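queue> holo job accepted (glutamic acid)
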Amino acid sequence: MIRGRLAPSPTGAQHLGNARTYLIAFWAARSVDGEIVLRIDDLDSPRVKSWASEQAIEDLRWLGLRWDGEVAYQTQCTEAYSEALQTLIRTDRVYPCTCSRKDIEQALSAPHESRFRGEGAVYPGTCSHWHHGAPIPEIPFCWRFRASNETLSFEDENLGEQSCNPAVELGDFPITQKTGQSAYQLAVCVDDMTAEVTQVVRGNDLIASTFRQMQIYRALDETAPTYAHVPLVRGMDDRRLAKRHGDTRLSVYRQSGVAPEAIVGWAAYSLGLLEKPEPCSATEMIEEFDWDRIGSQDTRIDPESIFFT
Ligand code: GLU
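queue> job finished
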């Protein structure tokens, strides 16, 4: 039984690109009679906006998405994150890192670009000499995960086989903030384990994170879900959809009287699931869903011309 999830980040309004990813996650689960849960990734203070969680839920309902069970919130799961962290400390998979961004930049004389778009330089290992049992630093630190020096592979439901040597290509990565709060990589793994999620569908900008998260699953002796990375929506200049491209907030479409079926129809058409961008509901598209038609190409749009012409 497939159990998927929708995981909006309430760091701002949900836009067209987010909507398309949620629709795919929903169709992927429902088309095989699976379940899907909703979790709000609201851990990332101070970027999280107080209005955005509720708005995201309304947007998803308006789009016609339905989920199983209660909505989960990361901010209510902090105990589970600390437990997982304690295990990783005990097993020496993490170390306290006191480096600032500047320290890291200075230690890297010639940082090379990662093949994963948007990923920073590989951490130079400055604090990795620490081992479990040694004194804990007295200045602020984050817990950093020791990357595995081996090739990891997974079969992406949409993109096929993906491989990476995390130590070489991505490096050690933080799993907490310096405040002690769990960071995205750890929280997401623990959340998906807790909710017994078996299928993660998300944007193709998160492939590098998948390799990080696979290592966390292994270190915690858990089985990772299956992954499907889906194409993003970009502006005509090929940059990620953002304010400068025009307003694509779902809440704005909603308030301007655009029908959710128009958005769903556009999403299905832009993914190759419909021949024409004709209106249809999220539920109607369930049986049309087919991974083979999704492909790997990002979509370019001019938001101004989509729903208001
Ligand atoms: N909340 C994340 C986002 O909106 C998704 C997290 C994930 O898929 O792991 O980008």
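queue> The chain has a mean pLDDT of 95.
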